[in-house]
Amino acid sequence: MENEVDITPPLPPWEKTFMERLQDAGYYTGAVGKIHMIRPKGYHETALTGGKGVRWTQARGQNIGPAPLGQKYAAWLEKKHPGGYEEIYEQRRKPEYHQDKTAIVNVLPEEEYVEYWIAEEAKNFLRKRKESSRPFLLWVGFCGPHGPFDPPKRYAEMYSPANMPLPKTFSPERYKNPEQEIKTLKKVIAYYYAMMTCIDDRVGSIIDELKKNGQRENTIIVFTSDHGEMLGDKNRFGKGCFYEPV
To answer: Per the record, what is one GO cellular component (predicted)?
Structure first.
């Protein structure tokens, strides 16, 4: 059962998270975006998304539809762009979206991309805490640069696939069509960089909000990640191995 990620059991109720310990110390805590706690513990308020990757069941050939990006994002998107959620749903149902090396331009306008919503929710949290002297913790989890690699159009055009360097450990001769594999990998790398740039910009907008609210000087910012991405190293993609890039 543990191998089926869609039904992995939640954290036991008796386990105390560091967010709960911060609450005990007087902190007001919030989380926006993607977190891996099935039942969030230790937050006074949340605005969460689901993941953007293909489900374990889909990877095994059982096409049960796209991974959800979460009800709150879907509701926001439907209000901002009626039919928008259906557009990304239909894009995710395309066969090419379910491949390990998916590189495709997101169908939504840039300002409706999920990373924008996450950043806006983070800024909303900061605005509400602006007048409070109570310390806070805000967990911001972006969905990218996780595969499938689907940056907004402007970011997708920032990096030319032709200029992307290949990993030193990538061996195209192992494939039946080496030229096509090289072309595919270069596009994946370019779109990976595009997604990172998009997230960098969103992080910058959050930091700007801290400065605007007079919160930057007494706020500690911690950057962390749950895993890396093979991105063609040793001819592998994703996170399901024990090599150093992951």
So the answer is: cytoplasm
In terms of pTM, does the model score above 0.70? yes
- CA 162 from chain centre, in angstroms, equals 25
34-47 pLDDT tens trace:
987 766 789 999 99
Reported as a single tens digit per residue, the pLDDT across 219-234 is 999 999 988 999 999 9
State which residues form the domain around 167.
5-235
* 54 vs 179: CA distance, rounded Å: 26
Residues in CB range of 194: below 8 A, 6 or more apart: 149, 151, 155, 156, 158, 159
CATH of the domain at 64: 3.40.720.10
What is the residue type of 164?
Answer: M
Instruction: Flag whether 170 is in a domain.
Output: yes
**Confidence band (pLDDT; 50, 70, 90) for 59?**
very low
> Dihedral through CA 154, CA 145, CA 142, CA 220, nearest 10?
-100
Q: Does 72 fall in a domain?
A: yes
Q: How many domains does the chain divide into?
A: 1
